[in-house]
Design brief:
Udp-n-acetylmuramoylalanyl-d-glutamate--2,6- Diaminopimelate Ligase, Chain: A, domain 1; alpha/beta; UDP-N-acetylmuramoyl-L-alanine:D-glutamate ligase; Protein-Tyrosine Phosphatase, Chain A
Amino acid sequence: MDIQILYEAFLASTGVSTDTRTLQEKNMFFALSGLNFNGNAYAAKALNLGASFVVVDNEAYFDKKDARYILVNNSLTSLQDLARHHRSLFTIPLIGLTGSNGKTTTKELLAACLSCKYKVHFTQGNFNNHIGVPLTLLELDQYHEIAIIEMGANHLEEIKDLANIALPTHGFITNIGNAHLEGFGSKENILKGKCELYDFLNNNGKSIFYSGQDEMISQIINNYSTTEKVYSWVKEVEDTSSLSLVVDFKGEKTATHLIGSYNINNINAALSIGVHFGINIPEMLAAISSYQPSMNRSQLIVKNGYQYILDAYNANPTSVSASLESFAQSSESLEKHVVLGDMFELGNEAINLHREVIEKAITLDFQSIVLVGPLFSEALESLKTGSHNIWSFKDFNDDFISHFRKERTKEATYLIKGSRSMKMERLIEIS
């Protein structure tokens, strides 16, 4: 399929859709398929719903008499090729963001900072994979002056592929942690996989931002040229009466709606990259102060008199440890309790890593530790701890809910964290 033919169809459409449930009038529908679904089967439905064109990769679903059908070898590859072509027509800066932890918060803080001066296009939600990145790029329009594209990965070569689609001019890796070990195999491979973004930038003479706070990145950054270090401009203000983060920049204090000292690195990255693009720091600090976290990320929620720190968008051993340490060190005067759900995609090290998290939680002396999921249950059993304030449940079941409702108190703050598929935010819903 000639990319120009595909692009002309795109220009004649109102956007791109891969889901008939959210398809809008005159959208261009790409029939994507996977192990358990065949998007081609929805092509006719998409047209009935008002699609301008449907892109299919199975002749059995192609109607050669209908000019609205476009037959390609692979619908996903065609979507990615279309996105790359569309992006290549823009000369604006495009910042690629990846990392084991903090990439979404950094992306949103950076978008808030850059919006002080520019019309910014940035990844919405978790659209950071081989489908989400192309869809985000295809929303670029002539009004945008700068773009931020989040890139997620759980195996080698994935960031490389996303970079070759997004064609970033700048890039930043937040950190390297124990995430997606099942796919990467080792922490060294995680570093290698994330650095595929830096490899692309370096090979194309583009700009690299890096954090000196990450030991593994600091050890390899000299392999690259055109690098710019993220400054540690803001520090955490300790001994405040608020759970929310208060930062200090040269004696000036700024209150935020963020929870957790680990967000200091995310703020510094947003400020440093913002300064690179000509935005003054006071404006950016005001933007950061106004930023409200969402989507179950480090949110302080009070419901029916109970206080929660909901950080349940995702979890891995590195992010959980950081959350536990930050919570333990906070000046919160109420009792501190933690509720942890299983962490996934950790491969053969899953039980060991869950056990390490339990051991860390025990040393931090919380009033109670509640563990949910079969991985935490097995890890606790292997630990054979005699600690009296730990409860474990193999599932988010009635026994767990009953225990939580019985034991919770309004004189406490509860840190809730777990991998996305654990849906730990359900605890808030039952309050």
